[in-house]
């Protein structure tokens, strides 16, 4: 599969869920907070295109709002990781071998020692479970990821001739990082952002599954899976549908990331020609 095909397929899959999440901001077929026991476990059809759950809630509406919750948490968390990690990586690369470089890298190692779920448990133990705390946990874990990627890419540029020319011209390390280093590693950061976005979707689903993410009555794909595990034989659609949404969205984002890598990497473009 070529990079262009991957980009088209991944973009189309991702767009479906992004549109569903955007539409859910202004309209859903049914109120996701309303319980209607008389309509519990309805099969697909009529007023309920995908059926209802054990509480009579419309599955289509819950999946739409769940997409909004998952995408919002992952997007903000990646934004936090990129917004803090990229400057730290540029700072470390500009002071390569110095104490600032060592400090940033050791801080990254410290955060890497605690997976996102462990960070979430620590945060929720103090502040309680919520979508905001899930964002903080995933965002904190993303900071060293972007810092390492940025530092590694920037270090390879600091020895190039045009950077040496900029230093000779009197430009400081901060100005060189912003004007010359960052634009030349932006494509790599975009690709890494799409990868972390898909990982953020998985992390949010896992945290919601164990009760650390968005709290009721806000729907979440992970919590829908947790609530459906006792009904897997009587109503398998309750588990299959949110699981399928997670798989398709993560697949779409990963394909889009691979396609973006091929499209933005000049070496791969030249090889394709």
TrEMBL record:
InterPro entries associated with the record: BP-dependent_transpt_permease (IPR050366), MetI-like (IPR000515), MetI-like_sf (IPR035906)
Pfam families per record: BPD_transp_1 (PF00528)
Localization per Swiss-Prot or TrEMBL: Cell membrane
Biological process according to GO: transmembrane transport
GO cellular component terms given for this protein: plasma membrane
Keywords linked to the UniProt accession: Cell membrane, Membrane, Transmembrane, Transmembrane helix, Transport
Family statement: Belongs to the binding-protein-dependent transport system permease family.
PANTHER family: OLIGOPEPTIDE TRANSPORT SYSTEM PERMEASE PROTEIN APPC (PTHR43386), PEPTIDE ABC TRANSPORTER PERMEASE PROTEIN (PTHR43386:SF25)
Protein's name in the database: Peptide/nickel transport system permease protein
Organism of derivation: Rhodovulum marinum
Lineage: Bacteria, Pseudomonadati, Pseudomonadota, Alphaproteobacteria, Rhodobacterales
């Amino acid at each position: 599969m070529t990079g262009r095909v991957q980009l088209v397929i991944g973009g189309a899959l991702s767009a479906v869920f992004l549109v569903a999440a955007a539409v859910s901001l202004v309209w859903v077929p049914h109120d996701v907070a309303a319980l209607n026991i008389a309509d519990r476990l309805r099969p697909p059809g009529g007023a309920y295109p995908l059926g209802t759950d054990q509480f009579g809630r419309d599955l289509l509406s819950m999946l739409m709002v769940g997409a909004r919750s998952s995408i919002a948490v992952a997007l903000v968390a990646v934004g936090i990781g990129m917004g803090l990690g990229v400057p730290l990586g540029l700072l470390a690369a500009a002071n390569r071998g110095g104490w600032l470089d060592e400090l940033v890298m050791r801080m990254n190692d410290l955060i890497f020692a605690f997976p996102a779920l462990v960070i979430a448990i620590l945060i929720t133990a103090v502040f309680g479970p919520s979508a905001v705390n899930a964002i903080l946990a995933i965002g904190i874990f993303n900071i060293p990821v972007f810092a390492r990627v940025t530092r590694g890419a920037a270090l390879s540029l600091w020895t190039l001739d045009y950077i040496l020319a900029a230093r000779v011209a009197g430009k400081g390390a901060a100005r060189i990082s912003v004007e010359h280093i960052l634009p030349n590693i932006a494509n790599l950061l975009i690709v890494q952002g799409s990868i972390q976005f898909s990982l953020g979707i998985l992390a949010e689903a896992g945290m919601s599954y164990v009760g650390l993410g968005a709290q009721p009555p806000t729907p979440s794909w992970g919590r829908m899976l947790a609530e459906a595990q006792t009904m897997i034989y009587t109503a398998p659609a309750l588990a299959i549908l949110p699981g399928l949404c997670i798989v398709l969205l993560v697949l779409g984002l990963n394909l889009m990331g691979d396609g973006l890598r091929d499209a933005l990497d000049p070496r791969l473009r030249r090889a394709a020609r």
